[in-house]
Protein 1
Amino acid sequence: MSTTRRQFIKQSGATIFGASTLGAVDPETLLAQEMPKLEGRDRPTLVAIYLRGGADSLNTIVPYADPLYYRHRPNIAVRRDGNPREQVIPLNKQFGLHPNMASLMPLFKQGLVAPIINVGSPHPTRSHFDAQDFMERAAPGVRQITEGWLNRFLTMTRSNDDSNFRALSLQATLPRSLRGQHPVLAFPSLQIEHTIDTFEELYGCEEDQRLQKRGAIVESSAEAMRRKVTDAGASTIKLIHELRQIIAQTRSNANYPTSGFGQQMSDLAKLIKARRGLEVAALDYGGWDLHAFQGGSLGTMALKLGDISSTLTAFAEDLGPDLNRVLVMVMSEFGRTTLENGSEGTDHGHGGFMLLLGGQVNGSKIYGKWTGLELESLNDGRDMPVHTDFRQVFAEALSDLYGFDPFAQQFFPGYNHRAQPLGILHPHA
C-alpha cells in the first residue's frame, strides 16, 4: 500500500474514536439515565460551534448605549452613526448586534435566537489551551478529566437503539468536547471523496482479504489487533458511503455562504433532515485571537461574524420545521479585554458571550447580567466579568432538550450548583 493507516489518519482525520482510558470518568460510577424514548426521526439534535481563539463579546453583542464603550475602543468600536449599513443593529435600548449579523435579526424577532452576555468559566486562566480544555470538558481547573462533556453525555445515555450517526463532526480533528469513551465519527466533509478512496485502499486490500479467509486459524495478538482495526475501518467505509448518499440525495433549501463553514453546516442540515438519529454534532471555527487590526464595523472580525451569521440564517431556513428539534450553541473559551490595545486589537480576557439558535429557544431577549464598563466593575480592572457559569447553560440545554438531569450525579466534576434557571429554552414536550 502506498499510504499507511497511521499516515492516513493524520492526513484525512476520518476515524471512529473509541474508548479513552486516560482521565476517563469511571463508567462504574456513572448511573446511566433513561431518557424519554423517541423515534429516530424525532430525536433532538444539539450542535456545538466553538469559536477558537477567544471571540470578542463587546463587538458582537455591542453595548452601544454606553459611552464608555466608545471611549475604551476609539478605533475598533462598532459604529452607531454614519453609513447605516455599518451601524450597530439595536436588539433593545442597551445592546445591539454587529452590523454584519443583520441576517439574524428576523430570527431574533421570531424568538429563535438568544444571546447571553458575561458568560464563561469561573477559572481565571487566560491561556487558550487551558480555557478550551476546561470549557470543552466542562471541568474548569480539573486537569484529571480528559473526556469532553458531550461525549460524557453520549456515554451516560447510550442505548441499544442508538443510530450509527448518533454523533459526528464534519472536520478532520474531533473537537475536544466529543472525545471520550463513546465512538464518534469525525471526517472532513470537504475531502469526502479522498477520504472514501483512501479508506477503501487501506481496508479493502488483498492482504486484509487473505486474513478474512483465515477465520479458523488462531490469530496472534498482533493479527487480532489488526483485525479490530480492519473491522473498524470497514465500518467507517460503510458509514461514509451512507453519509455521502444522504448528502447527495437530500435537497438544500437555502443559499449558504461558499466558506468551509457554510459547506459543513449545509451537509449537517442534510443529515438532520434525513432523520437518521443524529443527536450531537460539533464544529470548530478558528481565527478569533485578534490581537491586531481586529476592526470594528469593518475588518477581520466583521468578515467572520458575517460568515457565521449568514450560515446560521441559511441553516435555519434550510431546516424549516426541523429547526424545532435542533439547538445550535455558539461559544468561545473567553472574551477579550475591554480596552483596545496599541495594535488596534484586543488581548485575552475573561467573560464572553454565547449565542443560541433553535425552535426551543426562548428568544427575543438578551440573557445574562450586565454591570457596566466602569473599570471598578471589570474583572481585574481590564475585561468583562463572568456572571453566568457556562455549565449552567450546558445544564439547561441537556435538561430541556433531552430530559437529562446533569445534577442527578456528578456530570460536571466539582459543580453541583443548581442555580436559578436562566429559562433560555422551552422544555422539550
Protein 2
Amino acid sequence: MKATGPRYERETIIRWDEEVDQAEVYTASDVVCRQMRKRGYDPVEDNGRSVVFKIPKTEIRLPVKKRELSEAERAERARRMKAIREKAAS
C-alpha cells in the first residue's frame, strides 16, 4: 500500500458487530498499515491506496475515562489499604 492524497484523507475506520468475532480495520494510513503488519496481521484486501485487515475483536481497546476521586474517597481508600497491609504483615 502506498498512501497518496492529502493527510486529512488518510483515515482509519474500525467496524464490528455483535454477530461476528472479527473486527474489520480499513486504513489509508501508511503508519497504521505498518503497525498492523508488525503485529502479524495480513491484509485481506489491498487496493493500492488503502488496505483492510480482519482482527479479533478482543484486540480492540477503547479508552476508559479515569475516575476522579474526592479527597474523602482518597482518604477512605488509603485507610482501607493501610488496614489490609497491617493485617497481612501480622
